[in-house]
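Q: Could you fold this chain for me?
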Amino acid sequence: MSQPEEQNEFEQAGQEKQLSLVEEFFIFVTENKKWWLIPILLVFAVVGLLVTLGATGAAPFIYTLF
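A: Sure. Below is the predicted structure, expressed as structure tokens.
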């Protein structure tokens, strides 16, 4: 008898709205109290942005910052 209930729960889970990566990360941080991850990921994001912009026409302006 538990088989139809499991399928029903599975089908309901499949129909739920999928969360974005940022939403899933925020839920993970709040539920697991991993607040120290936020500064690390922000630094990675800034470095990644600088690397990306360093390959574009904005490179001369970025190089003058350092």
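A (continued): The two ends are 68 Å apart (CA to CA).
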